[in-house]
Amino acid sequence: MAFKHSIKMDVSKLMKFKRELKKLQKTEIEWGWIDGRAYNRSDINCRGGIPYAMIAIKNEYGGYTKNMKTGSFIYIPPRPYFQQSTSASVSSVIKSSASVYTLLFTGGDYKAKLKMIGNDQVDVLKKTIAKNNLKALHPKTVKIKKSTKQLVDTGALVKNISSKVIYKRAGYE
Asked: Is residue 19 within a helix (H) or strand (E), and if so which, with residue range?
């Protein structure tokens, strides 16, 4: 005597979860000067058309740069504010990552949480810059800027820090 059994299961939610997990594995959050924007042509320091990212790199690592007003070359000491922000960013992201997976498991809006994480990293970077805890500005720079604070001549560099979530496709390298 033989017994026949049949079991039917709806695995559509499980398949959706698997797809979303694969998407999440290929997802990245970027922040910094990532949108390609440049200084306005009317910039008071004659940097019109120069991308914010280029100025940020020069500030981060230092080096010689051309004074756009006088044409002479000046040395800018390194001010690694972005590098300083990474330790705070790592701890912030670790804390937030668990909630992303919780939202994914429960069917919540994990994509909104990813955007929030990106925005939090922008805030971390801005706070690091605001600390001004790097090498003091040269007296000549203070005289030109009329300020002892770094990155405050127009505020445009700090205002243009942004973030975005990037969902990469399969096979993306």
From this structure: helix 12-25
